[in-house]
Amino acid sequence: MKELSLNILDVAKNSVTANASLIKILINETEETLEIKIIDDGCGMDEETVMHVVDPFYTTRTTRSVGLGIPLFKLEAEQTGGSLTVESRSIKEDLENHGTEITALFYKNHIDFIELGDIVSTVTTLISGSPEIDFLFEHKTVNGLVSLDTSQIREVLGADVPLDSPEIILWMTDSLKEEYERIDF
Amino acid sequence: MKSLAELEEIRNRMKSQVVLREDSDAIRIVVGMATCGIAAGARPVLQSFVEAVNEEGLTEKARVSQTGCIGICQYEPVAEVYEAGKEKVTYVKLTPEKAKRIVEEHIKGGKVVAEYTIANS
Ligand SMILES: Nc1ncnc2c1ncn2[C@@H]1O[C@H](COP(=O)(O)OP(=O)(O)OP(=O)(O)O)[C@@H](O)[C@H]1O
């Protein structure tokens, strides 16, 4: 992908498909590293599916063919000397406590590091595509924190105004952009 | 986050218009947003559709939504336009500029932009 934010969009869409009610996108940046966590409370995966998802060449007779979204993200992390891990608990295993946590670590000074890019568009695209889901976005940098929490926005809007109204999406875009300006990117 | 007071203002302004929005899907523009679509540039295309529908004042007539893989990866970014009583139109190899023109000519003007359809690529 041209930007890591596009990978985030792609991978977070799996959480939508997994019927999550809350999706967290947490980015933690230091001088040298960029860590991306995508955490959901969706249906989760069993161990074998996890194996297959991180390594598309790991197959057993029962696994079906799957996509390339996560393997691609993993490759992009590893080519900077970083890593990608998937932790998941399937709903079949635990009815109460299920979901998936994907952690990708990048080394920013590596020549093959891909920039984060337009993360604001990724966040608003996700929200407008699934207004019924809650999203928590946090981007921590050495200069400060940028965040957006749809549950807070929902509280203000009440039941009458949908989260995907053009006016609300625009407000969220402006809000995030202002915060990024404030912490001086 | 930006001040929530401002958000409250928007809410109050919008509450009066809410009823009109309910049946805003006479036309549906569906953009393919699977790995293949996103890699090919579907995110800015989707944004361009949303912006153009807004700018042209068509939010009551047309709705932009996202879907997974449409199954023709070599033509991504792809969008399909559904309208009741009409045949589905599939637009391929889109750019934000093409999306804007589709909204102006097809969604607003009612005339399919033939040169961007799958039949012509
Ligand atoms: N957060 C998640 N929760 C539950 N299952 C998941 C999650 N993420 C991935 N999966 C499972 O792993 C599969 C592969 O995911 P991957 O992102 O690699 O490809 P994909 O999104 O299915 O396909 P495409 O490449 O066309 O986007 C998914 O189809 C799903 O079954």
- Described by the principal axes of the CA atoms, the overall outline of chain B is globular
Which ions, cofactors or small ligands are bound in this entry? Answer: adenosine-5'-triphosphate
Kindly report the oligomeric state of this protein: heterodimer
N-end to C-end Cα span of chain A: 22 Å
Number of helices of chain A: 6
Q: Class by helix and strand content of chain B?
A: alpha+beta
Low-confidence stretches of chain A: none
Give the helix/strand class of chain A: alpha+beta
Beta-strand segment tally of chain A: 6
Q: Largest sheet of chain A, described in full?
A: 6 strands, mixed
CATH architecture identity of chain A: 2-Layer Sandwich
Name the beta content range of chain A: 15-25%
Q: What's the shape of chain A? A: globular
Please, how many domains of chain A?
1
CATH class of chain A: Alpha Beta
The CATH superfamily of chain B turns out to be Glutaredoxin
SSE layout:
The complex is a heterodimer of chains A (185) and B (121).
Chain A: H1 4-17, E1 22-29, E2 33-40, H2 47-54, H3 69-78, E3 83-89, E4 99-107, H4 119-129, E5 134-141, E6 144-149, H5 150-157, H6 166-182
Chain B: H1 4-15, H2 18-21, E1 27-32, H3 35-40, H4 42-55, E2 62-67, E3 79-83, E4 89-91, H5 96-108
Helix pairs in contact in B: 4-5
Bound molecules: adenosine-5'-triphosphate (ATP).
Adenosine-5'-triphosphate (ATP) sits between chains A (14-15, 18, 40, 42-45, 49, 53, 66-70, 100) and B (34-35, 69).
